[in-house]
Design brief:
The structure holds 5 protein chains of 5 kinds. Helix content of chain A is 69%, strand content 1%. By secondary structure, chain A is mainly alpha-helical. The chains are: A mainly alpha, B mainly alpha, C alpha+beta, D mainly alpha, E alpha/beta. Chains A and B meet through β1, α3, α4, α5 and α9 of A and α32, α33, α34, β7 and α37 of B. β1 of chain A pairs parallel with β8 of chain B, so a sheet runs across the interface.
Chain lengths: 301, 1035, 176, 118, 213
């Protein structure tokens, strides 16, 4: 087998960059949210402190094997998702492990962590965890649909499922971005994006007052630390897919950071000014508003 | 040389002799001996005419030829019919010997006279002589009705006499005017006569037709059937029915083609109406009466089709008649053994498994299932009717047959599943022997018809014989039979391995090798497990023959065999009675559509290769396609036709569910694959039928999955999920492109593996926990870890999450979609994917995770033998995930020959399509490494974790009360119901319930026609005569 | 209000009628008449809301006084009914069938005063005091200070000041 | 002559049939059927009648050699004899039934024997 | 003891009857263990810094002090600036603020929640009631000395203390943590019997396992 072993350190480098960027970006976004509420908000390095704190917790409990493995699944899902998609276009160094599969792999791999996490949380035996999971699954099942339609529209548009080739087709100026060549697909995908970011109005999964933080209710110390690590990676990995599909990808890290940040901000901006949907409301919302746009994008492409 | 006159003379002599005998035993001996002699004579003639090559003879009673004397004819038909009559007489006499001995020699004499009269009706060639024999039969019948223990029989007998008075008057008038016009009473003479008197002959014809108890002029007959002694009812139904039919046949020969439409019309109306009216019957004998009426109507209708049936006429008519005679006589005799008259009272038969076998044989024979004569006859009939374009008649016949199958199988279900009550069974040898004889006759006729048919003799098929052998081996312990069964499947697979192309090989591997693996689970059963192996092996035999079937006949025969085998198998479940019934009704409905489709396609050809479907052209082709597709989609439970599946799969036994779900459903897909391969795209009325299938597949996927998420019962959940999965496969096939097919085949393999695995796992859990309601379970992961693993692997594979094999299916699926021509149906498919995730999570969560219940604290892992196949499946799934190429590469190549564009490239470990690429090994390795690294890191930082118990959860500073109130499981996806519950309104169920309810209500309304008043019945008869006359003159 | 009281007086033996405000009155009735009167007030006079049910310990008289405070939403008026029951083995008919919420008040009275309401749902379940074995604490013969000293560890060094003396010393330090 | 007989026969038959279908008493029905039978017999004989010929009895009056041209068709005569015999048999059987029914139910009303229906 | 905690006889699906003892079968019975600090001082210092910078308060208000905590989240006081935030589950919290008087009934819940938190964990007593009973010094239902029942790292005196006092208290607590002196969880494990004896003395219907994992 002619495997290029240098891919491994390169991939680890990507991982390192993204983890740190993700931690800082999360803090920044928390600060932005705080400023909306006229607070100063957390220090920019707060996430590091929290992470180290959680790893440093000395005791822990376990409810069973799946409970133990849940965060591992979760983080593997995040890391895998990041590495299955090339981070920078045109860079051999940061094309990661994308030789293993194309866009479909990435889209389905999103569920890997979700499933593992759901199983782990469910084994804790906590009803809130189960309630949170069902809410999450139900909401995501509806939110995924416009995304799937949009992805399909894009794949039809470029006649390929390879992320690299999709990005390649968008090079040569922003007018070539899918955002401008197929705005309907992007619109559908961005509505779906709102639903998958666990921010208002789609954050009933966590619902701190009602089912204290939902699925991870029982998770703590190093389990929680793994999940926090994932929180830094996973949204970015997801956004990278959006960026590559719809916003022309990135060729250098600053461009990467900027685009990821701006895409993330979409959900933040919507989130800070909206109350919360109930699950059935969000299902209906996606089916009534987002899905028709996705269908249009497929029909018109 | 035995003179045919023996058949008349011997009973007469016996009857006279009886006058001299006083001792009842001796009288009985004389009776039996006489009947035996007559039967022997008839048998001798059958042998002579059928095998020894003798010619038909005419016997002139007075030594001169007609018209100066009465002539009798003995040909093969006559010989066969007299054999039926005399044998039925003999066995019925045996069956009612106690009653006969009690009533004395006079009754026996009357019985002998009845038999003589029936023989006479068959043999005579003289019109007036026919009348005399009919009158003799009427008198004897009325006499025998008096034998019944039922006090109501008197009234019935009188009604019978009233009606036969009217009939005989009509007959007599008809005869005399016929004679007046033609100058002869010799039938052949009348036939040859130049001028036939239409009205007179009409009277003769209608009188004979009235003897056949046509609808609606048959109320009296039903009362007779209901109230007379069952052995005598057997005689009326089988012997008198056969004799009258033959009389009608003779008249039709005389009358010529002009009379055939009337016969057809009378017959088919009676057939449909008789079966319809049988639906609401609760009394077994009355039901048999309606069924007799219907069957005789069918044969009359066939007699009306003799112009088109030509040389096949006797094959078809006698096939149906023999099926009717043997089965109906057998059923009446069985009814004589059952003490009570309700249909559910037949549950008493369960005490004697051979009687259940007899019951099954008779029901299958009546319903025209292979390998019985009715099946061959039906095949020929439908083939000819389709070729001649008599589609309305064809449709009515199939509709009536479906109704008949409906009530027969419902009854059979009662017998197998209801609680036996009351007195039970009268089981004297004299009662058992006739039944046994009927069973032997049934199988003998099955052989005979197979032999005589232009098609292959089904009883020569090795798989079928192997399955039937298990009937004889049923006394062996289950594990021995199981070993035999597995060995048989494996041996057959090995034996036929060379005969499959890669496409068929996939199905063969699943159905045969896969079947053997599934059967491993059956080792867990103890005892003898009576009835399981014959049914299961019947199903496998059907599957084995289906894959190899080259022509439409063997394909259809295999289809019916697997249907009936799986029906028996499903019926074994504890609460499966209604579900098995809806399964068989839907399956037979689908099968009849397939039959009709094949017949239309064959256009009269005796043998039609399945592959020749490709040669059809419009306007026939789309209709054939439509019928076949709907037939196959019944089996794959596409939405709208799915209502049978959830109950049937869920209520089946633990090791049966994987067979009927993982394996049997593939038969439908196989049919669709064969169909689409041969016929490709068809357009009907401007609609592309494959496009319609695409929509149906998509809708099945969505709605199946959506319904699955709302189930509380684990097995029902899996069953609904099968609907969705089959929807995917249907969608793939209907895309009609290379990758779509590849995806469908991948689904075939995957669905077999994970659905079998899940059904076994869930079945094992249900076995241990004593419930199938998921919310009653919970927290079983530590007690049943292996089951958990198999469910876990199953759901990961099924949801398509990498790195397991389901992902491969999804990947191919997306690639296939990119080349698909229509884009809208895929929206439904896209939606159904995440929904599948919902119910899968529910499955694993509510069973294995969450809170363990009090009563399950000591539950053990599922039985060893249930786990063995599951573990094999786990290994298979992982292996298939790593190297899908092993199975798919060949198929891909094979498909390349059929649908060339858009194949995959199998370069090294990477699989590349026109659009994307995928490297299963790399995915597995990468995910494995990341997972292991993180896991080790967690173990390192978290090495001191304290294992806690199930109530050690944060509970808002309180503590949980009981596991039941802490386990969140019931109505798991309530918001979904709020948002999309309207989509899962049971519309299809309501629709089919409406149809069935409508039929029942209609039947219940129509049967009020039969008021029970003799005069009303006579008026019916007159109205019938007038109506038929108007019908004929109006034509 | 007065009209109401007059009409009630003709039906029930009302006593000690106090018209505290135009829309608030109190009256005393014998314990045996309470249920009937309450029923009448609820069904006929529009007092659909039970505001509270509470008790007063008249230790010296050997009586508990129960007060039922009712509210008439339509006419915005309140009526308090008082009744006296014997203090030893105090028992009273429950009114949880009239107002389900009353069950909670009755449970509280059982726990705090030891007044039993036979048949009231969950009346014996602990309300605030889990595992209480002593006298019901709202009875005036229950010495809470003594109980507290017996049961709880106290931190040393606690000082209590008489407020008057403390303020005096604080404000007029010279005079001390 | 033949036509009159024919008409009489049919009339008798219809009267009998009408009687059988409208009378509720079993015995009356049986009698009515006998009338109808008689009517049919008349019809048969009438059909066999040939003007100017004699009865088909081969005796001195009709020598065997001329029989073919002198006598009327013998077949209906034979038929009618058989029919009468059979008619008698059936009537006897019906009477027996009526007797047994009366024994069982103490009634001869046909409307009383309707427990078997539908 | 409540019915659902009593021993009960249940019948399994196979028809065999057996006993279920909820307190044993449904709850872990292991006693708490002491957890030593990290082997390397520098690592422990880093950890202590992180712990001090990341105080996750359990959202559990016991008395009137609960109302004083809310302003901390508002722009005026904004405790998030100091790495303080609130968590709804004890599993993820490391700071338990006993916000005011503590009745015996609540004490039971407090103990349960405290034990469900993970080592290291800190307890802050808020207001005079937690110190010596305060104005409830003679109440029949309020405990007088919190440190008899839980290891308290810090008291913030007052009736009630203002949010500013709380902020100051957090800073003090951070110092204590950074100095490595906030080992309340280990103290609790070490003196487990003593704490349990005190707790059981006032909680008369002890219907839970000795340590609530």
């Amino acid at each position: 087998m002619d495997f290029d072993w240098m891919k491994i350190p390169y991939a680890l480098l990507t991982l390192f960059i993204v983890v740190n960027y993700g931690m800082l970006q999360n803090a920044l976004i928390a600060k932005i949210g705080a400023r909306v509420g006229r607070r100063r908000g957390i220090p920019i390095w707060q996430n590091y402190a929290d992470l180290i704190k959680n790893y440093s917790i000395r005791s822990s409990i376990t409810h069973g094997v799946m409970y133990y493995l849940g965060p591992v699944f979760r983080l593997s899902g995040g890391v895998g998702l990041l590495l299955f998609v090339p981070s920078l276009y045109g860079s051999e160094m940061f094309s990661n492990l994308s030789f293993a599969g194309d866009l479909i792999l990435a889209l389905y791999f999103i569920f890997f962590g979700t499933l593992g996490m759901a199983l782990g949380a469910a084994e804790s035996g906590h009803p809130y965890a189960a309630i949170g999971i069902t809410r999450g699954l139900q909401q995501v099942s509806a939110a995924e649909l416009p995304m799937a339609l949009a992805v399909f529209s894009v794949a039809l548009q470029y006649q390929t499922l390879s992320v690299t080739e999709i990005v390649a087709a968008q090079q040569g100026g922003f007018q070539n971005w899918t955002l401008f060549t197929n705005p309907l697909a992007v619109a559908a995908a961005m509505l779906s994006f709102l639903g998958s970011m666990m921010r208002p109005p789609f954050d009933v999964v966590l619902a701190p007052q009602e089912i204290p933080i939902g699925p991870p209710t029982e998770y703590h110390s190093s389990y929680l630390a793994l999940m926090q690590t994932n929180r830094a990676i996973f949204p970015i990995a997801k956004i990278v897919i959006y960026m590559n599909l719809f916003f022309g990808g990135a060729t250098i890290w600053p461009e990467f950071f900027l685009k990821v940040f701006l895409i993330y901000m979409v959900s933040v901006l919507v989130g800070v000014v909206h109350p919360r949907f109930r699950v059935e409301q969000s299902i209906r919302w996606f089916l009534v508003w987002a899905v028709p746009i996705g269908i249009l994008s497929i029909v018109l492409v | 040389m035995v003179s045919p006159l023996v058949l008349i003379a011997a009973p007469l002599a016996g009857a006279f002799l009886l006058g001299l005998v006083r001792c009842p035993r001796a009288a009985l001996a004389v009776t039996l001996a006489t009947l035996g002699l007559a039967a022997a004579a008839a048998g001798w003639w059958v042998w002579q005419l059928g095998w020894a090559g003798a010619e038909a003879v005419e016997v002139f009673t007075a030594g001169t030829p007609p018209p100066f004397a009465i002539a009798l004819r003995m040909g093969l038909p006559e010989a066969a019919l007299t054999l039926v009559i005399t044998l039925t007489g003999l066995l019925s006499a045996l069956h009612m010997q106690d009653n006969l001995a009690e009533t004395g020699h006079r009754a026996m004499a009357v019985l002998l006279v009845a038999v003589m009269a029936y023989c006479g009706i068959v043999l005579t060639r003289d019109l007036f002589n026919l009348f005399v024999f009919f009158e003799l039969a009427a008198i004897a019948t009325a006499g025998l009705i008096l034998l019944s223990a039922d006090a109501r029989a008197l009234g019935a007998g009188f009604k019978y006499l009233v009606v036969s008075q009217v009939i005989s008057a009509l007959l007599l008038i008809g005869i005399i005017f016929t004679y007046h016009a033609t100058g002869t009473l010799y039938l052949d003479g009348i036939a040859a006569a130049a001028a036939k008197p239409a009205l007179a002959f009409f009277l003769v014809f209608i009188a004979i037709a009235a003897e056949l108890k046509p609808f609606p002029a048959n109320g009296w007959a039903l009362d007779v059937y209901e109230s007379s002694h069952p052995a005598f009812s057997a005689l009326i139904s089988a012997a008198a029915g056969a004799a009258s039919l033959y009389a009608a046949d003779k008249l039709l020969t005389v009358g010529g083609p002009a009379w055939l439409p009337a016969a057809t019309a009378i017959g088919i109306v009676t057939f449909v109406a008789g079966n319809l009216l049988a639906l609401p019957q609760g009394n077994d004998r009355r039901l048999l009466g309606y069924s007799s009426v219907a069957q005789i109507g069918l044969v009359l209708a066939v007699a009306g089709q003799r112009d088109v049936l030509g040389e096949h006429y006797h094959f078809v008519a006698f096939g149906l008649l023999a099926s009717h005679a043997v089965a109906k006589a057998g059923l009446f005799w069985l009814s004589g053994m059952v003490a009570e008259r309700g249909l559910a009272a037949w549950a008493a038969l369960r005490a004697r498994p051979p009687l259940i076998f007899a019951f099954a044989t008779f029901v299958a024979m009546l319903a025209g299932l292979p390998p019985f004569p009715g099946f061959y006859a039906k095949w020929e009939l439908v083939r000819v009717l389709a070729a001649e374009g008599r589609l309305v008649l064809l449709g009515l016949i199939l509709f009536g047959a479906l109704l008949e199958a409906g009530y027969l199988f419902r009854w059979f279900g009662f017998a197998l599943k209801r609680e036996p009550s009351g007195e039970g069974l009268a089981c004297a040898p004299s009662k058992g022997i006739p039944v046994l004889a009927a069973v032997l006759a049934a199988w003998g006729l099955a052989w005979q018809w197979g032999d005589a048919s232009a098609q292959a003799n089904l009883l020569l098929g090795l798989p079928l014989l192997f399955a039937l052998a298990f009937v004889l081996l049923d006394w062996l312990p289950a594990w021995v039979k199981n070993t035999l069964a597995i060995a048989g499947l494996a041996a057959w697979f090995a034996l036929t391995l060379g005969q499959y192309d890669p496409l068929r090989l996939i199905f063969a591997v699943i159905m045969l090798a896969g079947g053997a693996v599934t059967l491993l689970a059956s080792y867990h059963a103890h005892g003898r497990r009576i009835g399981f192996y014959p049914s299961a092996m019947l199903m496998y035999a059907g599957l084995a023959q289906l894959i190899l079937a080259a022509d439409t006949f063997s394909f259809f025969a295999a289809w019916e065999i697997l249907t009936v085998g799986s029906y028996f198998l499903i019926l074994r479940g504890r609460h499966s009675e209604p579900h098995a019934l809806s399964y068989i009704v839907f399956s037979l409905g689908g099968a009849f559509l397939i039959l009709a489709g094949f017949a239309v396609a064959a256009d009269g050809a005796a043998s039609f290769a399945v592959a020749d479907l490709a040669t059809l052209a419009a306007p026939v082709a789309p209709w054939v396609f439509l019928m076949l597709a709907i037939g196959f989609m019944t089996k794959t439970a596409s939405i709208g036709l799915h209502v049978w599946l959830p109950g049937a799969h869920a209520e089946a036994e633990t090791d049966v569910s994987p067979m009927v779900s993982g394996i049997l459903l593939k038969a439908g897909l196989f049919g669709l694959a064969v169909l689409l391969l041969a016929m490709g795209r068809q357009k009907l009325g401007g609609i592309d039928l494959t496009l319609a299938m695409l929509w149906i597949g998509a809708a099945s996927a969505l709605l199946g999955n959506l319904m699955a998420i709302f189930q509380e019962d684990a097995k029902r959940l899996l069953a609904y999920s099968s609907i969705g999965q089959m929807g995917y496969a249907l969608f793939g096939l209907a895309m009609m492109n290379h990758l779509g097919w590849l995806m469908a085949l991948m689904f075939v393999i995957n669905h077999y593996i994970y659905k079998s695995m899940l059904f076994l796992a869930v079945g094992g859990v249900a076995k241990r926990t004593g419930t199938r309601d998921m919310y009653r379970m919970g927290g079983l992961i530590n007690l049943m870890p292996l089951s958990f693993i198999s469910v876990l692997v199953g759901i990961i594979a099924m949801s398509g999450v990498p790195p397991l094999s389901g992902f491969g299916g999804r990947w191919i699926f997306y690639n296939a979609l990119l080349t698909a021509e229509s884009r809208l149906p895929m929206i439904l498919i896209f939606f159904s994917g995440p929904i599948a995730f919902l119910y899968l999570f529910r499955l694993i969560h509510t069973i294995f995770l969450g809170q363990l219940k009090d009563e399950h604290r000591r539950v053990k892992e599922a039985p060893f033998w249930l786990m063995v196949p599951q573990m094999i499946y786990v290994v298979l799934l992982i292996a298939f995930a790593l190297v899908p190429g092993v199975a798919l590469r060949q198929v891909d190549g094979h498909l390349g020959g059929l649908l060339p564009a858009g194949g995959l490239s199998w370069d090294g470990l990477t699989i590349t399509s026109d659009f994307g690429y995928w490297n299963p090994v790399a995915i597995m390795v990468i995910v494995g490494i990341i997972f292991t690294t993180l896991f080790l890191w967690l173990v390192f930082v978290n090495r001191r974790a304290q294992k806690v118990k199930q109530f050690n959860i944060v509970f808002a500073a309180e503590r949980p009360f009981r596991p039941e109130t802490t386990h969140f499981a019931w109505n798991f996806f309530a918001p979904y119901r709020k948002a999309l519950g309207f989509l899962v309104q049971p519309v299809a169920t309501g629709f089919w319930n409406g149809i069935s309810g409508g039929l029942h209500a209609g039947a219940d309304f129509t049967r009020r026609l039969y008021t029970g008043n003799a005069q009303t019945y006579a008026v019916h008869l007159l109205v019938f005569v007038v109506a038929v006359h108007l019908f004929m003159t109006g034509m | 209000m007065r009209a109401l009281l007059d009409s009630l007086k003709s039906l029930y033996p009302l006593d000690d009628i106090v018209l505290q405000r135009p829309d608030l009155a109190f009256a005393t009735v014998p314990a045996a008449q309470v249920r009937g009167l309450l029923h009448h007030l609820k069904e006929r006079e529009g007092f659909t809301h039970l505001v509270l049910l509470t008790a007063v310990d008249w230790l010296e008289d050997g009586m508990f006084q129960l007060t039922y405070l009712l509210h008439d939403r339509a006419r915005a008026r309140d009526l308090g009914l008082r009744t006296l029951i014997r203090r030893d083995r105090a028992t009273m008919d429950g009114i949880h069938d009239l107002w389900p919420t009353a069950a909670t008040y009755q449970r509280e009275l059982k726990e705090m005063f030891g007044i039993d309401f036979p048949g009231s749902p969950g009346v014996d379940d602990p309300f605030v005091l889990e595992g209480w074995t002593d006298l019901p604490p709202y009875r005036r013969d229950f010495d809470t200070k003594d109980f507290s000293e017996r049961n709880f560890n106290h931190r040393e060094g606690r000082v209590t000041h008489d407020p008057a003396a403390h303020m005096k010393r604080h404000l007029y330090p010279d005079e001390a | 002559m033949a036509h009159i007989a024919l008409a009489t026969g049919f009339l008798l038959f219809l009267i009998g049939l009408y009687g059988a279908l409208t009378n509720r008493n079993l015995l009356r029905m049986i009698v009515a059927f006998t009338v109808a039978d008689a009517g049919i017999n008349v019809v048969i004989v009438a059909v066999g009648h040939m003007r100017g010929r004699t009865a088909p009895i081969l005796d001195g009056a009709v020598p065997a050699a001329e029989a073919a041209s002198r006598i009327i068709d013998p077949v209906p005569q034979a038929l009618v004899l058989t029919a009468i015999v059979i008619g008698v048999g059936i009537t006897a059987l019906m009477l027996a039934y009526a007797y047994k029914l009366y024994e069982a139910r103490r009634s001869l009303d046909i409307g009383k024997f309707m427990e078997l229906k539908w | 003891m409540r019915d659902e905690l009593q021993k009960r006889v249940v019948k399994g699906p196979d028809g065999v009857e057996f006993e279920v003892e909820p307190l044993k079968d449904y709850y872990c019975e292991a006693p708490p263990a002491e957890h030593p600090p990290a082997y390397l001082k520098i690592v422990e210092d880093l950890f202590n810094w992180a712990r001090s910078q990341s105080l996750w308060i359990l959202g559990f208000g016991t008395g009137c002090g609960a109302i004083e905590m809310r302003p901390l989240m508002t722009p005026r006081f904004d405790a998030y600036r100091y790495g303080v935030q609130w968590r709804p589950t004890p599993r993820q919290s490391n700071l338990f603020i006993i916000s005011g008087y503590l009745s015996v009934k609540t004490l039971k819940r407090v103990i349960r929640s405290y034990e469900q938190m993970q080592n290291p964990k800190y307890v802050v007593g808020l207001g005079s009631c937690t110190i010596n009973g305060g104005m409830y010094w003679d109440s029949y239902n309020t405990i007088k000395r919190l440190d008899d029942y839980l290891p308290v790292d810090l008291y913030i005196a007052g009736c009630m203390p203002r949010p500013e006092a709380l902020l100051a208290g957090f800073e003090t607590l951070k110092h204590i943590i950074r100095e490595g002196k906030a080992e309340g969880a280990n103290l609790y494990a070490r003196n487990f019997d003593w704490y349990k004896a005190n707790q059981k003395k006032v909680i008369h219907d002890w219907d839970m396992p000795d340590y609530n994992w």
